[in-house]
Structure formats: C-alpha cells, structure tokens
Amino acid sequence: MWIPYPIPILLEAIGSSGNKSESTGHFVVPFDGKTIPVCFAEGRSVQIESPFSDVTLAPENWLPTKLPSNLGELIRQDDKGEGRKLAKKGVVFSPLLRCPKGARWDMLSRSATVPEGTSLRIAVLNEEGKVLEETAGTWIDMRNINSPVVRLRATLEGNGKTTPKLHAWWITLYAPRKQVQFRDIVVAETDGFQLWFDSPLFQIFRDTHPEPTNKWEIHVARNEWEAVQLAVRSKRDLLWMRLGVAPEVERLFDVQIRYVGYIHLPANSRATPVEELVRKAPDDFPDPLLDLPFVPLRANETQPVFIKLKPKKATKAGVYDISLTVQTPLGERTATLRVRVYPFVFPDRTRLWFTNWFRADNFARYHGVPEWGNEHFRWMRLYARLMREHRQNVLLVPLGLVRVWRRQDGNFRFDFERFDRFIETFEAEGVAERLELSHIGGRKTGRWEDPEFVAHPIWATDELTGEGVEVPLETFLQAVRDHLKATKRLHKAMLHIADEPIPVNVESWKALSERVHRAVPELPRIDAIHVANLKGYLEIFVPQLNFFAQWLNFYRQRQREGSEVRFYTAWLPQGKWTNRLIDYPLIKTRLLHWFNVRYGATGFLHWGWNFWGDVMVGELQSPGDAFIVYPGPNASLRMEAQRDGIEDAELLWSLAEKMMGKKPLTPEQTTKLLEPLLEPVIRNFTEYTKNPAELETVRRQVLAKL
Q1: What's the pLDDT at 2?
Q2: Residue 238: CATH number of its domain
Q3: HEC states along 216-272?
Q4: Across the chain, which distance is largest between two alpha carbons, in Å?
Q5: Contact indicator for 339, 253 with CB cutoff of 8 Å
Q6: How many domains does the chain have?
Q7: Domain-located, residue 308
Q8: Domain closes at, from 302, 327, 345
Q9: Same domain, 567 and 500
Q10: What are residue 174's DSSP bridge partners?
Q11: Among 182, 243, 552, 562, which has the highest number of CB atoms less than 10 A from its own CB?
Q12: How far apart, in whole angstroms, are the C-alpha atoms of residue 258 and residue 639?
C-alpha cells in the first residue's frame, strides 16, 4: 500500500465549475521515519485542491462533476468558489491506520489555520468508530491508546462565509526496544469500491448499478479515436479518485481521460415521447466530460470515467492489453482494457463537411477577458482545437467582423483585420477548410411566419462626423469577395442568404437570393431550408433531416446536376428521428452520420455549439440543442458520439473506395454499394438499431475489410 507523503509539491486548485487555477507551491510535514504523514480519505461537506493539500469546508451542495442547469452561473466564477455560501459543518477522515508490531502510538498532531468564528477539532477513533480521544487543540497524546487500529477524524465548523483549513496531520510512533519497519501503516480498503466497463454510447447515471463487464475490447484503426467508459462506485464518501495509465502506454497510444459530469434537466425534450428518451426528467443527466486531475466519490453513487485512445500511426497492428489504475486514498485497483489495432491508417482529414455555429463572444464572457483582444483569441484557439479534434472542418464567419468607414470623398474603406485574424485562428487548427459567410438577411420582424425576408442593414462610420451611414449591400458583398480573392480564400467560401425559409416567405427569400447572386455570382449560396423548390437559388442545399427524407429524390437529382446536399438538425426533428439532445440515447447522435452515408448527404450543420445559458432555452425546451461543448473547454458525451459517427462514415466511405479500386464514386453510387452492409443498422429514417452492439458488429466488419 502506497502512502502519499506530504512533501513540497505543486498544486492545481479545482473550482466547482471544473476550472483549474495556476499551480502554486505548498509545504507540509516531511516524512522522517518516525513521523507518519497521513492522507485525507473520506469526507463530507469538505473539499481539497489536490490529493495532498488543505481540507476546507465546501460550498453548499458542491460537487465538481455537477454543472448548473443554467450555464450562465459559471461566468467568471472564482476558481475557489468564493462568494458562494459555504457548508457550516464538514468532516474528514483518514484511512484506517495500523500500529506496527513492536511499536506504540505516541502522538497525533495537526497543522491548521482556524480563523475567528470557526473551529476545528481532531479525534482518534477505533475501528468501530468509537471516539477514543478528541480535542480542539493542535495535538493528542496517544500513549494510552491500546487499539492497534485507529482512524483519525477532523470536524470543521464555519459560519457560511469563512472556513478553517486543515493543512496536514501526522502520527508519531515510538519503538521502545528495537528498530521497527514503518511500513503498511495505512490499511488498504479497496474492497469498498467496484469497477466495470461500459460502452461509450451508454449513459451512466449516478444510480446506475454495476454490470458484469469487467472485460472490454476496443477495435480501432491506427490514427483513429475510440473510447470506453470505466465506472467506479464506492461504498463511502472518498475525497478523491483518479485514473491513469502507465507511461509506456503513451508511447503507442494517445490517451485522454475525462471524468463524466452531470447537468440537471428539469424537463425533457418537449416533442419526444417517453419511449424515445434515455430517462424521464427531472434528473441529473450525464453529458459534460471534465478535464480534472481527480474527482471526489460520493457513497453509493456511480462515477464514470471516459477513456479515449488513438493508436499512433507507427503502432503495429495487433492486440494490446492496457492496464488502467484507479487510485483512491484507500488504495489502488486495476482494470485491463484490451485494444485490437487494425492495419488501416485513419486519415488526418475527414471528408464529411461538418459545421457547428458558435458565439465567439461567449469565449470572452465565460473566461472574463476583453472581446477581440489577444486573450480572447488565445481562448478561441483552444476551443478551435477541440472543434478540430471532433472533426469540424467548416467555419461560420460573421460578416460583422468587417469594419467599414466612409471617406470624405464618399467612397467606403473596408477594414478586414479582425475578419482575417478570426479566420487565421481557426485555419491554424485545421477547422477552416471551408468558410460559411454569415447570413446577409433575415425575417423583417423576426417572427417565424413573417412573409418578408429583408437584407440586414450594413453600417459604416463617417470619418468626418462619426455618424452611422448605411452601406449598399452590393458594395459590401463585392468588397468581401475581392478581399477573399486577394487572400486566396475565395475558392473555399460560400454565403448564407437568410435562415430557414418556409412556404409563407419563400418568394421574398428567392428575391433576396437573386439579388445576392447578381452582386457576387462567384460565391456559392448555402442555407438551412424547409422547402424544396429552390433550384437555381442555391448551390448548397441544407434541408432539415425530416425534409431531406421527405424530398429525398429531389435532392438526389440536385446532386446529379452538380449541387451539394447536406442536412441539419436543430431542436427538431424529435421523436423517432436521430438528433443530439441530452436526454436522447447516444446512439441517436452517433447514427446521424451513418445517415450521411446511407442517403448520400455530404455534410451536416447544427446551429448550436456554445450558446451557453439555460439548458431549457426559450420556448423550444429541448436540452442540448443550444450547445454541445462546455466552458473549459470541455467536450461532452454527445460530442464524442458525433465524432465517432463522423469517423464511422469515413471508414465506410474508405471501404467503398477500396471495393471499387479507388475509382471515384458519386454519393448515390456509394449508397448503393454499401446498402447491404448498412441495412442491418439503418432500415429507414425512423427505423434503426438502438443497440450499440449491433452498430459495433458492422463497424468491426468494416475494419476487417479495410
């Protein structure tokens, strides 16, 4: 049994939102052979910043893996939770301690800071929990304690605003006649928690009980990510638990370990029957994947760990057994994960055109930095990296980033500095392989059934008076086109007209589309649409999934004529349709991109990547529609399922190419070629497997054929 000796170390503070502070130095009592430093093990209503640091009272109802329903509560929240009401009483225990043969207990000492209005008591308990000695002082004389096994307890009390801090405690032992080996002082109690594996497509709730799956095998191509969950369930409240792999594993595999967090849903998606939900609300639903060094465990609650591996390109095909070590203050447990690596090397770039729209200002708001400054762009790049890791390769570029002035001669001067820096930030991470220029128009009143689409006004600042002056739409669009051409980006750019035309306003939308096309015919037009009769008004069609199904033959004909066809989801469609909502089974999210292959759509769009706020946003009441990433940046179970689906699609398309001897295939040809393989997984748009094992069976067949 290892003892985590308190010595001078570096700490990382972990706040209630999961944010990490900068490392700081901390000194606690060194080990000298007779003085035994003791780790903190169990605790209630207390928190620690690292496994070896101070114990303090925690904020009320604090749990780092639980996020609020309204993510707005995380904005600029202090890392240590200051300003939140603290628990007024908490308790922390040591592991069981055994006195070595030939020695006796001598003294318990503690180091603490106890501000006025707070208190801290330490006690020695026997194995059954009976108090043998207790004091509010700094030490206890243990020479008269005859129990060979003891446990230490500290009781912290505050006033809701201030907390005592227990820095360290240690026991001195005395060996009167001979040298004693001070080993195995801490009694290992690893039978107090359980481990089991589960699918990355299975939502593990806090009340999920162990399954008989202590073995798991991942099948994966080289350079491809695949994942598994390891669930941990403890019989007691443990202050910390962490999972790791041996360093030699990381010579062959890239490894990511994330702790599954929970977000409270007060209600379910409003347009979905209960049989299509993973669970009825209200409840805490698993979704965020938190990049934390450790998490606490609560008694009789399950904590899943999301483990993602990618064999390096140079890793040889074969079978590897990877040992995963779960550490707690009470000892270690190991679980063995088998990984079968196939010869196929997964490409660095995927061919599915994949975009999530996002709010760049939210990166600044949630991290407390000025908009469009260097720190804002630094955070933006971190989020861009997460986008690329999850296979996003299309970037929505706000046209509002172009600043315009009117000169004294009446001509306009266009400033593209911010526009270019925005694009360059995402190009540096591989996200901006194609550019969607944001919508130039919208509904006149904003009402869904408004019959009129109009162009948004574009404003310039008069250099002489400082007043706002409207810029002609055509002048603005042509300046953007010329700049894209000058920066060699015109070939990858496309332009949105106005979002989601419906039958009552499609004619005004067509008029706006024609106006745009006359001004800049070099820019392909793209839009999310609810109508089909837009031939000649779009070059890239993006129908909502249910309309894609309804007018499938129309869209296939557009592809034959050279147009691109993608599809999108938003808060709809729901029910039996696939989507990426928090209360949906994760297989619905992963299968979105099997539909791309099955029905020949070459891209996918969603509007809500980081529109953080209330999870039950607005009247739509569809949790997870507005975001799929969490502040941090932290990914989510849904984000990983969608990435897996995109990688599945790439494997399927690669197999089709191989079957045809690398001959180029149209989407329709690919669909027909792969239909026998896909039919067991997807029968039609609303009938598909709900069993992850059936999906995995087909995926393994694809890997074997490649």
Answers
A1: 34
A2: 2.60.40.10
A3: EEEEEEECCCEEEEEEEEECCCEEEEEEEECHHHHHCEEEEEEEEEEEEECCCCCCC
A4: 101
A5: yes
A6: 3
A7: yes
A8: 345
A9: yes
A10: 104
A11: 243
A12: 13
Give the Cα separation of 360 and 279 in Å (integer): 33
pTM of the model: 0.92
Q: Considering the domain boundaries, does residue 1 fall inside one?
A: no
- End of a domain among 345, 363, 390? 345
CB 570 within 8 A of CB 626: no
Structure tokens at 398: 């706000």
Residues comprising the chain, all counted: 706
Strands 458-462 and 302-311 turn out to be unpaired
Buried/exposed code over 248-274 (b: 16+ C-beta within 10 A; e: otherwise)? ebeebbeebbbbbbbbbbeebbeebee
pLDDT at 81: 46
**Is the Cβ–Cβ distance between 258 and 289 less than 8 Å?**
yes
Provide the 10 A C-beta neighbour count for residue 342: 20
Is 359 inside a domain boundary? yes
Contact between 498 and 441 (Cβ < 8 Å) = yes
Q: Let me know if residue 463 belongs to a domain.
A: no
Q: Do 575 and 603 belong to one domain?
A: yes
Task: In whole angstroms, give the CA distance from residue 453 to residue 441.
Answer: 7
594: CB partners within 8 A, 6+ apart: 645, 648, 649, 652, 678, 681, 682, 688, 695
Q: What is the span of the domain harbouring residue 88?
A: 9-174
What pLDDT band is residue 79 in, cutting at 50, 70 and 90? Answer: very low
Specify whether 234 is located in the same domain as 360.
no
Residue 233 and residue 310 in one domain: yes
State the pairing for strand pair 46-48/55-57.
antiparallel
The span from the CA of 55 to the CA of 157, in Å, is 12
Residue 66: CATH number of its domain: 2.60.120
**Cβ-based neighbour number of residue 130 at 10 Å:** 9
What DSSP letter does each residue of 274-330 carry, written as one string? Answer: GGGSSSPSSEEEEEEEE--S-EEE-TT-EEEEEEEEEE-TTSPSEEEEEEEEEEETT
Q: Is 589 helix (H, G, I), strand (E, B) or coil?
A: helix
Band (7; pLDDT cuts 50, 70, 90): very low
Same domain, yes or no: 322 and 365: no
Beta bridge partners of 430: none
Residues 110 and 92 sit within 8 Å (Cβ to Cβ): no
Torsions phi, psi for 17 (to 5 deg): -90, -5
381 plus 530 within the same structural domain: yes
Q: What token pair was written down for 281?
A: 């609300």
Q: What is the mean pLDDT of residues 461-489?
A: 97
What span, in angstroms and rounded, lies between the C-alpha atoms of 30 and 22?
24
**151 and 251 fall within a common domain:** no
Residue pLDDT, tens place only, 411-454? 999 999 999 999 999 999 999 999 999 999 999 999 999 999 99
Strands 139-141 and 104-113: antiparallel
Instruction: Compute the chain's Rg from CA coordinates.
Output: 30
pLDDT of residue 616: 76
- Are the CB atoms for 87 and 57 separated by under 8 Å? yes
Q: Distance between CA 124 and CA 591 in Å, rounded?
A: 56
Q: Do 263 and 386 fall within a single domain?
A: no
